[in-house]
Please model this.
Amino acid sequence: MMVDDDLWSAVGDPTRRRMLDLLLSEGSGTATSLSAHLPVTRQAVAKHLLVLDQVGLVHATTAGREKQFRVDQVQLARAVAQLADVGAAWDSRLQRIKRIAETIQRGKDTHNETEQEQ
Model:
């Protein structure tokens, strides 16, 4: 699976991740309602929502004078699948590094034992 850099750039920001958490727990929210739970202004929240909307993680519907945002479950599932793939790839790399380090350590231990016997 290819990693969507724009998607990961969008969720790389801690404020946007917190916004997604809030939207998931509340079901939906507006820039105003989200800003009440975040240490940023309503205008900053609106800009973050725009970024999330551009990558498809949220969608807006007009509710009176404000836009109501909801998380796109399909796009979120896609993001989670990408994260799982990246995690699995890194787990594999780290296991290879661990095996190499263990082989090097065994070689050093054998070398030290040989020196002590002499």
The mean pLDDT is 88. DSSP finds five helices and two strands in the chain.
